[in-house]
Amino acid sequence: MALIGKIRKNSWLLIVLIGLGLGGFVIMDMFSGQQSIFGSQQSVMGEIDGKVVDINEFNRAEGILYAGGSGNNTYGNRSSLWNYFVEEAIVSSEADALGLGVSKKELLDLEFGSNDRLSPVVKARYSNPQNPNAVDREQLNQIKGILDGGKTQMKTMIETGQLNPNFPYYWKYQEGEITKDRLQSKLINMVEKSMYTPNWMAEMIGNNQNAKVDFNYVQIPFDKIDDADVALADADYQKYLDQNIAKYTRDEETRKVEYVEFKVTPSKADSTKLQQQITDLKEGFASTDDDSIFVQNNFGSISQFWMNGDALNDAIAETVFQMPVGSVYGPYLDGNSFKAVKILDRQMIPDSAKSRHILISATDAASFAAATKTIDSLKTLLLNGAEFDTLAAKFSQDPGSAQNGGFYDYVPVNQFVPEFNDIIFYSGNIGSLYSVRTQFGVHLIEPMGRKGNSNPMVRVAYISQNIEPSEETQELVQEDAIAFLDANPTMESMIKSATEQGFVIETSPSLTRNDFAVGSLGAGNTSREIVRWAFNNDPNNPGAEVGSVSPQVYGFQDPAQYFTNKYVVVGLKNTQEAGVPSVASIKDEIELEVLNMKKGETIIAQLEGKTDLNAIAGQYSAKVDTAKSIAFSGAFIPNVGNEPAVVASALNLDINTTSAPIVGNNGVYVVMPTYKPTAGTVANIPQLRQNEQNSARAQVRARLIQAMRKRADVEDNRARFF
Predict the structure, then answer these.
(1) Over the stretch 616-650, which tens digit does the pLDDT of each residue have?
(2) Can you spell out the DSSP letters for 527-576?
(3) 567 is in which domain, residue-wise?
(4) Neighbouring C-beta atoms of residue 450, cutoff 10 Å
(5) 170 with 67, same domain?
(6) 337, 299 in Cβ contact below 8 A?
């Protein structure tokens, strides 16, 4: 009672404490979580012109569109999805400003209307399996029926397993894609219609097309100057960059990494062990009653077709024709595998056979049962005198032969599925009828003739063991890579040690923050980890600085066999902010171009004051060539390539006047025009104008969205999440 009394007297304190406790939760919630009242950025993956892309929304879309997707394609899918989000935001914003939209009626027409009105999205996703150029109307009609049934019917179908639970979300997302595509088409059409070529421009284009010139020239390839005779300074690189700013300007920050690979290859002990595994399996392979199961359990395969010596590995081509059926030979080496081969059957097979058949298609147990009954009935009719070609034309579902009475003239072996081959080439009697089930359905087959020499052919089964490094071998290489990393924590020491030990040091191309491929290392999760480290976006591996080496050794899996085939030690070579790159960050990329620029300057200096083409050609062991009827609009010189500067110079010179040396794409040129035909009056201005307008409009379709995207305010935070 005394305690209760004290609480009553100090109730204000209790209220304050409770208030502070509740306030703590409120304040904590205000400053944390995805719903912070101050606008927490924890779930903001990006923002496009003020429109937020939430990571949860992105993940839902990815899960719906790419359910079950994995591997290297994950990053490609995410990149495509991000591009969709960006373009959808840009297109919808521009469409709203212009008053463009897609009505419900228009959307329905784009989804289920006539073929000429269907959205490209629908045409691509619902093509007919039998004819990819046509739409699968049956599937579209089924979907329309589901949608027309409303939410209640859809819910029932999902609960009873008749409909994928993700279907409603998938279809809603797809409607967004269809709407975006339609709005984008409307924007493009508006801009295309605004493209116009006036008469003066059409005349200029016509004059350029008609302007042609014949000229003699000497080409002095850049390699006439030895690389060792050219010294490159930073000023040369800077000069080249200044002349090609647009070509090398970066829209976003880039970084380069250098890396050393420790390749994992099977040891001799690994190979010996794997070879012995095949040896140990031979007895069981020879005695098994179920070759298919045995092969399946031992990474093998069964040949479904008849094979002659030319179709077999050279190591067994002669042996298999001398061994008894059922015997096993091996192990033998086939590429990167040890194998053993079992002789399943051997027959004398003629060169070709002719036949006719009736096919009733089937895909499941019920349809196969129905097809079998139909074939049995047709067989009865034939045995009672019915005409084969008449029944084939009426009932056969083989598009290749039905209208030809089911007839196939003489064809070589293995042109049909194995069950069909067997009947017509050796096991079936000529003129008899056989009911045969294949992957396509049930056939009624009549062998009609065989001809040519009979040759021995075999069917074989294989068991196989790929020659790959053991876990122990992989671990030993990993230990070597870790030891190398521990001894070389900086780029300087990494390069020095790698050079001393004979490793090849590779440099990546310029990487952007969201790249998922690194040079020769390819694309995938591990490459993405390297990029995240290089940009300091990997929370588990921070601290990337120019000259530093990642504290993690990166393992790469073999794409086919899934063992680790190399370990990589990576260092950060340089960083380059958006804009014009520095010489240091791009030097290795432009070295060849700068070298050619300097060689061109050297050749020009050597040619100073020289105008005789024969003398110039003799100086460089070159020759005087002739170019005929070269057009300004094409700028292409046969046997040389595209050289616009050379052609422009030739067109602007007087006849028989020697040009100054011209640095082109493939060397230095000296030209002398010999003939310039008089350009005729430009004809058909309307056609020229139309052609130019069509060309300009095609550029709109290819470049409008990219141009709009470049002008948009896009904040890309994907690297925070993956």
Answers:
(1) 999 999 999 999 999 887 788 998 999 999 999 99
(2) HHHHHHHHTT--TTS----TTBB-SSPEEEE-TTT-SEEEEEEEEEEEEE
(3) 254-265+470-579
(4) 19
(5) yes
(6) no
